[in-house]
Amino acid sequence: MTALLAPTPTVDLARLRGKARAIRREILRMVHAGQSGHPGGSLGVADLVTALYYAVLRHDPQNPRWAQRDRFILSKGHCSPVIYAVLADCGYFPPGDLATFRRPGSHLQGHPCSAKTPGIEASTGTLGLGLSTACGMALGGMLRGGSHYYYALCGDGEQQEGQIWEAAMFANKYHLSNLIAFTDRNRLQTDGDTEDVMPLDPLPEKWRAFGWHSWEIDGHDFTQILAAVARAKREHDGRPTMIIANTTKGKGVSFMEGAAAWHSGPPSDAQLALALEELAHD
Amino acid sequence: MTEFRQTRQGYVDALIELATEIPELLVLDADVAKATKTADFQKKFPSRHINCGTAEQNELSVAAGLALEGFLPFATTFAMFATARAGDQLRNSIAYPKLNVKVAATHGGITTGGDGASHQACEDIAIARALPNMTVLVPGDYEEARRATLAAARHVGPVYLRFGRDTYPVVPALHGEFVIGRAKLLRNGGDVTLVSTGIMAGEALRAAEQLAAAGISARVLHYPTIKPFDAEPLLRAARQTRGLVTAEEHSIIGGLGEAAAAAILEAGLGTPLRRIGVRDVFGESGQAGDLLDKFGLRAANIAQAAQALLRPAAVPA
To answer: Could you report the per-residue pLDDT of B179-195, keeping only the tens digit for each?
Structure first.
């Protein structure tokens, strides 16, 4: 067996914080280099995705198709910079590729494509597809009798798509307890506050009504993220899990935090320099 | 006496044949299992039939997920839902990542009948054909539908299979080997060429008989594969005969007729061509046969178009 990135019994939280900071820096460099992309949401889920890839998922970058690996599906595909930064750091492809984000000829498309990028499990982009695809994958894993898990990350605005609730019913019907999903609850979408654009509250109650386990956590607290995954695995009673992770869009960069305007669009040279400076230290 | 059978039955009979040979084969449906006939498969293989409820968008993306896990999903629903309701999922979940999903669409075309325009998909071939990576199969009778399904299962990559709702005449000329991407020469002839897809094969053959009675020798080329399009026999016909009539139970926009016209013009040929199909209108409720009459999708319509082509006045000086 090649070097597995297996979860360690004792998690080094300082290491995770350092990784997340490095991932955030890469996100900003990528969006700046590509001169387009979605920095706000990507920064907001950097802690979640870091926690999953460096402390939860069993995966092997040398063997991306290893049958028993845990799978991660980024349903909010516009946050591709975060997954690209993590996959490159893990060794799925050369880190130098990140500078080609959104450029002609690059495998790093604006929204991830499983046919192009090693480590990308499913193509996503148009909202709502990813959770359904994750359901199909999780059903497949269950039919094969695998003991691995399927992790999906949805946006909160994404849950205005009807397909999300089709998937919610499906996962309940087929008892997909191997599916552990997260909602990036940053309360902001392209046109502003989710509760103004199209109200979503109360999300945990909605998911519970659809037959899922669902509760809220702080999506920037590694201890809470890891505890939530452990709890989802413990409650292995035939129900899928939707963890509502309260996050701050643009987290880690003072002028991007909580600003809907940073949903998409690149930072200027000066803004990039300032942001990288802020992310240089804890 | 002509025998009538359902193309959707040919589809499901093939699935039942394949199930033992291919353990990864799964059948998905969207609360229309009795109408699509996948209920027959469900009776024999209940654990391999996944009813997604009336949620076709989820159905197609779930199929993509199953394909990513190495299964061979046949996602089944009506053509209207497979291409229009779940058009995004057909495109982005299946075609774009080139997944090994077979999308089986029944109730294609005007012969869906009594349900009327809301359920009569006459643009599904155009939608599926416009998607990169997508193979598009439109068989013409029960046996060809069965063979198309067998071929689709062995083909790696996304396939859109189109079947009808009604019973359709059995056309023995269609029952030879089914090779994806290969047109079938159903009848040789030197004056004019009739080009069919789907259930119009039988009408085209009857049109050729009618033309023969009028002293016109008609060739009949059948396209159970719309994409990839087998241009070579069409171009040969365009060179060897004086005109072509395409016939499809589909809009004249985006289907066989336009594929044929484009191939002929891009080859630098100017052979006259007429398209028989639904002429950019919505369908309506009625018995399938009455609708084929009303929308001009009969042998007589094909024969008339061919005769009009051959009249000297049809070709401007």
So the answer is: 999 999 999 999 999 99
CATH of residue B125's domain is: 3.40.50.970
Enumerate the residues of chain A whose CB falls inside 8 A of the CB of residue B69: 136-137, 140-141, 144
Q: Is B57 on the interface with A (CB under 8 A)?
A: yes
Residue B182: other Cβ atoms inside 10 A: 14
Q: Tell me the pLDDT tens digit for each residue of A170-213.
A: 999 999 999 999 999 999 999 999 999 999 999 999 999 999 99
**Which of B136, B169, B202 delimits the end of a domain?**
B169
For residue B15, tell me if it sits in a domain.
Answer: yes
Yes or no, beta carbons of A129 and B88 under 8 Å apart: yes
Name the closest residue on chain A to residue B90, using Cα atoms: A129
Q: What is the pLDDT of residues A115-127, one digit of tens each?
A: 999 999 999 999 9
Examine the fold and report which residue of B169, B194, B219 is the final residue of a domain before the chain moves on.
B169
Predicted confidence at residue A11, as pLDDT, reads 85
The amino acid at A217? I
CA–CA distance, A92 with A53 (Å, rounded to integer): 12
Please tell me whether residues B138 and B231 are part of one structural domain: no
How far is residue A32's CA from residue A267's CA, in Å, rounded to a whole number? 6
B88 touches chain A (CB under 8 A): yes
Token representation of residue B206: 């009857």
Complex ipTM tops 0.85: yes
Same domain, B254 and B164: no
- Measured between CB atoms, does A247 come within 8 Å of chain B? no
Range from A9-13, A192-196, A239-243 carrying the lowest mean pLDDT: A9-13
* Mean pLDDT for the stretch of residues A69-82: 98
Tell me if chain B has a CB within 8 Å of the CB of A224.
no
What confidence score (pLDDT) does residue A2 get?
38
Among B69, B70, B98, select the one facing A115 at the smallest CB separation.
B98
A139 and B92 in contact by Cβ < 8 A?
no
- Dist. CA A224–CA A177, nearest whole Å: 20
Q: How far apart are CA A151 and CA A179, in angstroms?
A: 6
Q: Does residue B71 share a domain with residue B12?
A: yes
The SS3 assignment for B279 reads coil
The verdict on B76 and B147 lying in the same domain is yes
pLDDT of A7 over the 90 cut: no
CATH number for B273: 3.40.50.920
User: Are residues B148 and B199 both part of a single domain?
Assistant: no
Domains in chain A, CATH or no CATH each? 14-278 (3.40.50.970)
Give B88's contacts in chain A (Cβ within 8 Å): 126, 129
Classify residue B160: in a domain, yes or no.
yes
Contact B128, B94 (CB under 8 A): no
Asked if B68 reaches chain A (Cβ–Cβ under 8 Å), the answer is yes
Shortest alpha-carbon distance between residue B165 and chain A (Å): 26
Look up the domain containing B215 and give its range. 184-312
Query: Distance (Å) from the C-alpha of residue B48 to the closest C-alpha of chain A?
Result: 10
The rounded distance, in Å, linking the Cα atoms of B99 and B156 is 8
- Write the single-letter amino acid at B180: I
Q: Which residues of B are catalytically annotated?
A: 56
In-domain check, residue B70: yes
